[in-house]
Amino acid sequence: GMLLQDLKDHDSEESLSPIHNGDVIKGFLNYWQRSSPETHKEHMEFIVNYIYSNANLHQIDAYFRLMAVAIDKGVIPARVVCETLLSSPLLRCTNDGFWKNTFQLIRKVIRGVDYKCCRDLLKMILAKICQVTGIESRAQLHLLHYAVRVLEYILDRETCILPAYLSVNEVMAISLDVFPQDWLLTEVITRFINSFEGLATILTESGRPYLRPVIGYVGVLNTMWKLNPGNLKFAIKERIPYDADYLMPQRELLRYLLLQPYSREVVQNVLSVSKGNFDPKLQNKCQWPLVEEVFVDVLITAMERSDESEKSKILWQHLTSQLLHYIFFVHSISLKELVKSLLDKLYKIKLRQGRDYLMWTMLHCTCLVIQKQTLSEFIILIQLFEFLYPEKQPLPVPDCSKSSSVQALAMACIWIQLAKKAETIGENLGPEPEALHDQLKFIKDCFDNRRTTIDYHIAIICNAYSTYSDTHFVATNVILDACLGNGKTKVALPGLNCVASGATIPISLSLLDSLSVHVKSSFIYKIVSRILKSASNQAPLNLSPAVVETYSRILIWNEVELFGIKQFVGQVFLQIVKSNAWNFLHAMLEILSYRLYHIQAHYRFQLLPHIYTLSGMSQTNTQQLQLSIENAALRLISGLNSCDVYPELSRSQNPEQLLSQESEELNKAFVLMLARAMHVTGLESPYGNWLENILRQIMEATPHCWPSHTLQCFPAPFKTFYSAHHHTPDSKATLRTKVDEEYRTWKSMGENDNVNYFTQQNTSNVFLCVMWRLLLETNRLSSVCYRILERIGAKKWLSHIRVFADFIVYEFSSAAGSRHASKCIQILNDLIWKYNVVTLDRLILYLALRSHEGNEAQVCFFIIQLLLLKPAEFRTRVNSFVRDNSPCHWKQNDYYEKHMNYHRRWTEKFYFEGLQELSQSLPTSVNHYLPIYFGNVCLRFIPVLDIVIHRFIEMPPVSKSLETVLDHLGCLYKFHDRPITYLYDTLHYYEKHLINYPQIKKKLVGTITGAQRDIHAIGWYLSDGFQSYLSHTDEPDKEPWKPTKAYYQDLVRRLINDILHYSFNKESSSVDCDWRFNEFANSSSHFLYTSCVELLALPVAGQDVGRALFDLAPVNESFEARSSIMSWINAVALILVSLPETYWNVVYEKVLEILKTTMPANNGKRKFQSIYVDNFTYNQTKYNFLHHYRFMSESYASYVLAMAHAIWHHSSIGQLTLMLRFLKEKVKPIIQTEEQFILVCHLVGPFLPRFHLERTRSLLKVVVDLYEILLIVDQMSPTMNYVDTICDFLYPFNIFYHIKYMFVGDSLKEEVDKIIPKLSSPLRLRLRFMTTQQVGDKQSLNVE
Predict the structure, then answer these.
(1) 3-state secondary structure (DSSP) of residue 1168
(2) Which of 1308, 1291, 1295 lies closest to 1247 in space, CA to CA?
(3) What are the counts of helices (DSSP H) followed by strands (DSSP E) for the chain?
(4) Cis before residue 18, ω within 30 degrees of 0?
(5) DSSP for 340-358?
(6) pLDDT at 935 over 80
(7) DSSP code of residue 433
(8) Beta strand pairing status for 1167-1168 and 499-501?
(9) Which of 141, 871, 913, 932 could form a disulfide with 494 if both were Cys (CB 3.0 to 4.6 A apart)?
């Protein structure tokens, strides 16, 4: 203070430069030099306050000049001075001396601060400018311009004291309306923001708002689909001037997804939400208003589509499930607010169509919350009713023999529940609506008459009185008793002495669907309670066929997932195991194997450890139960969707629990599933450590090896692993020696000694081989065999079968003549069908998964073929089962009768009964058969047949055998859960292997789709063109069929029409189908995969198919066709990414073509031009496909860019990562010009955020490649026109600035430090913030 007072004493109006006084300056500088840096801010605040309180204008000028001298001499840090001045509340535009001097000083010294501090100062300057309001004079405007000039200097691209990307973030964080109305300020800010339009174009994905996913394909869960649930905008962090369409709420995308069946998981991923995020304070409020509005639009769309068809019913079932989920489980939507918004819109458009369905949905919502909400919350429902039903006369009572009667009486049921609520709390609901009089009387009469018939009357009673605890209990018990049976009557089940409770007719699916969600929940709870109670009591009587079938049907309800499949997996299954109720457990395994559709992947991964735990329990060591456990595990593994495998494995805390510790075959099936998933989703590059860890754990649990023809088809990571972890099985000679020794032991010992010897723990597992020798030499088996088999046990017996599978291959390989081979096959057939020693499906599975090479591998396939086709036993069973049964079990009420008819004719035996019956000396024992409700050897064989076909494909010399097997057993695919998915996986995985075998592909597709001809109409799977191809016999002299452009267009148009159907309520080519019982989740997924199967099966090279599809979009066709260009691009991209790499890497060919044809923009003397010159024109008109397409002026380069963006948008992260190899190996060597580099930036720019979120290491590689390419371009291009845009891209919001700040941080320090110093001065000036090295002196960088 004394120093400042001394300065004031030396100052006078006559002397305007007192700082020339040496003593004052010296004292001021010494003062700051003596003070510690920690006190600088405090002292500067004191000085600023002192100056403002005690100085006149002349003195203020002097003080500021003194501070400038101190800063220049390095005594006071410029940052401390600037921050203190700007943070002072005394700095106002009305204080002209202080304001002017402050910004003059900052303008003079701001280059002396680092760029991070400069960003903080920019924030403070913007804040001060925004505080200026009500400019009333020219003088005040002049003062404002002091601050504006500083702002202009900071934002100046040529000065570049701060990365522009950081600046634009701060500028765009403030609304333009907040700034003072001043032409200079507006010009500075607008010009600066507009300078980022080039970057915005580079980072904009062409047509992104118009792309649509398909549920269940490889890229449906990628981060490119994510929206902000609050505003439904794309999750874009960059604050730069994107095109308006790019920043609009994506209502149509969400609407499209909500209309798609089984889209709940995808919608949750898009909105980044999960169940349980509930704030009790927001219980009756809408947390996501825009999402609520979209739901209202979806409900209106459903009303407009409503009619009497099954399709309408399915649509409303799905929407009801979606609505319930987001109201009651996610808690993001308020029922009251939603109904209010819906009512407002219905008033405007006067829509009443589909009113019964809407009130049916409202009934579901009402019954769940009526106990928790006040009566006033439901007044809006009455208002909705009054609008929808304006009739003054009573509504007619519907025909209750039809399911539509339940929807027609929905409002009457709601009124009954509201009346009960009012009565309970003592409030008055008001007079009964006249329109409901007859319906209410009808429902009351039905209830009073205590109807017990299982029809829609009972459903109506349950729905109306579900909140009446006593009456609801009685009504639902009527349905429950109908399927449980009374326990007095009994019916037979397959197997000796196996009986169940007498009810055989399940509750129809239509009736079950007619129950409200509250009734469904209660009904499931009661069924589960009865099952668990019987299991805990170990009831001797098995569950009735009706209740098992009914329970399996209600497990498919999405709206009660918590009480359905989730409870089945997490409670029912485990509780039954805990109760040791093995007959009940077997019923659950039957449901799991033959009845559950669309089991979410995480439930499959939860069930697998339960299954393996079961397998290891001593109580389950019986032949039938072990077979069912193995079959259930095999179906769980084979049923996994390729797209779900990696996400679930990455989330799994203990992946070793997903592996069997005993079964080599199940682990091999798991490996095959992993290989298929990796190939289909493109995770082969890169795959990380998760795969190696899993494979190592499998090898430790069950050491195994693969034949060379299987290894050749594996993805590269599998080949690498198995080449380093080779397991050598016992040799042929060793196995034969063991068998010879054990056979000699058998012949040398008596019966009891044989029993004791062959059932010892340390005895070699070759007894089945010994039995083979007995039959081969004596044509009979001893009664001792049965005693030995009983004591060996089911689990240990599996290892005997495994060794036997190897042994018979060796035996056949050395057999001489067809007569001996025929005898060997007959012996095998006797072991299976006569002696019941091993089941056919298990023996074939073990044979198919053995590791044989060369001739022995062919012999193995030969044995499989003979076993399946030569004896009549299995073929006869297959033909009988396929002829008399239908896979549409949910439509049947007589499945039990058909099931029993088959088993009465073809009895299955699991306990060596054939061997026991032939042994006269043995007493007949009673084996405890577990109940079989659905299964048989034909159904068990289907997943085995899947594996057998794959093994045949891997070895082309046996292709004729494959065709023969398909001819005789392909009809089983009538009962396959996922026939098209299996075809897709097979043709995709073996695409390179089958490229020279079009007849095998044709045979596979024709056989498997032909097996479904009795189930689905013609054209359900295949297009007319492909069906014509299948119907024609191939002739060797003629060239194979080559599809025309019209064929490809028709194929793609099917998918387009279906997506448009969901997007814009257009007519679809789909037929009525209950997607709950279909292999695909919805029609779009169905058409996508059936199209892929056709394309994969074409007798055309994959590259040719890819080229035909890529150029299919009608770029140059009529205006009518042009209106749906993005639909074509979207559909083609979806199909291409769902095909192998050979098909979609055509995008790389096209990109290289346009890169090679891109010429330098200018030639001549080297110069550098700012982005201000013509950046807008260049970027907006060169590659903006949609912008030019609207005016029919698009270029092929822009079309290629749009197609590439769509393909990479839909790609899995594994497929997208292949872009890196393309960039490094193909693109980098040919880039020479700036325009080529700009195009590369356009290609990769939109996908940097995805790399950051899903593959950070890949992002680092992209950035390194971009820097290296930039160095090449900088050295070879005579002209650099877009330095600012390029550097923007390489920073946080400027591509290079963009990359550093948004994504990779300092991870690229070493690489960047090597490249930036080599760049020319304008680039070095702008990129100097990316490196810690000196990149040149001020003069070389053109810095002031």
Answers:
(1) strand
(2) 1295
(3) 70, 4
(4) no
(5) HHHHHHHHHHT--TTHHHH
(6) yes
(7) P
(8) unpaired
(9) 932
CA 760, chain centre distance (Å): 51
Best CA proximity match to 258, nearest among 311, 296, 305: 296
Q: How far apart are CA 480 and CA 372, in angstroms?
A: 27
Query: What is the four-CA torsion angle of 707, 710, 714, 719, rounded to 10 degrees?
Result: 20
Helix (H, G, I), strand (E, B) or coil at 912: coil
Q: What is the pLDDT of residue 1328?
A: 80
Question: Distance (Å, rounded) from C-alpha 767 to C-alpha 775?
Answer: 13
Q: Do 1034 and 999 touch, CB atoms closer than 8 A?
A: yes
Distance (Å, whole) CA 333 – CA 325: 10
Q: Which residue has the tokens 């199967």?
A: 1093
Do the Cβ atoms of 1236 and 1273 come closer than 8 Å?
yes
Q: Report the distance separating Cα 804 and Cα 769, nearest Å.
A: 6
| Two structure tokens written together for 336 | 């009251």
Q: What are the Cα distances from residue 312, in Å, to 315, 1068, 1092, 1164?
A: 5, 13, 28, 68
Indicate the SS3 state at residue 761: coil
- Residues 1089, 398: Cα–Cα separation, whole Å: 42
3-state SS class at 234? strand
- Beta-ladder partners of 227: 234
Instruction: Work out the number of other CB atoms within 10 angstroms of the CB of residue 309.
Output: 11
Complete DSSP assignment for 826-873: HHHHIIIIIS-SS-HHHHHHHHHTS---HHHHHHHHHHHHHHHHSSHH
SS3 state at 490: strand
Cα 1319 from Cα 1296, distance rounded (Å): 14
User: What's the Cα-to-Cα distance from 1125 to each of 708, 1044, 1189, rounded to whole Å?
Assistant: 47, 20, 9
> Own/partner pairs for 151-159, CB < 8 Å, 24+ apart?
151/122, 151/125, 151/126, 151/185, 151/188, 152/188, 153/107, 153/110, 154/110, 154/118, 154/121, 154/122, 154/125, 155/188, 155/192, 157/195, 157/1170, 157/1171, 157/1172, 157/1284, 158/1170, 158/1342, 159/111, 159/1344
Residue 1165 — very low, low, confident or very high, per pLDDT cuts 50/70/90? Answer: very low
Listed residue (591, 586, 664) closest to 626, CA to CA: 586
Tokens of 348: 């405007």
8-state DSSP, 403 = T
Token pair 């095909």 is found at 1139
Q: What is the pLDDT of residues 1266-1314, one digit of tens each?
A: 989 999 999 888 778 888 888 888 874 334 445 555 555 555 667 777 8
- Residue 1021 CA to residue 1083 CA, distance in Å, equals 11
Over residues 190-215, the pLDDT tens digits come to 999 988 888 888 999 999 999 999 98
Q: Look up residue 1008 and give its two tokens.
A: 């498997």
Helix pair 1256-1276, 1213-1222: axis angle to 10 deg: 30
Least confident of 653-662, 1002-1011, 1132-1141: 653-662
Contact assessment for residue 1156 and residue 1200, using Cβ atoms and an 8 Å cutoff: no
DSSP state of 492: E
Contact 1327, 1287 (CB under 8 A): yes
pLDDT digits (tens, 9 = 90+) for 825-854: 999 999 999 999 999 999 999 999 999 998
Cβ 149 vs Cβ 103: under 8 Å: yes
The percent of residues above 90 in pLDDT, for the chain, comes to: 50
CA of 856: how far to CAs of 181, 646, 732, 822, 827, in Å? 88, 35, 11, 17, 20
Tokens of 734: 């060793």
pLDDT value, residue 1269: 92
Burial class (CB in 10 A: 0-12, 13-18, 19+), 843: buried
Strand 1279-1280 relative to strand 1167-1168, pairing: parallel
Closest CA to 301 of 337, 267, 346: 346
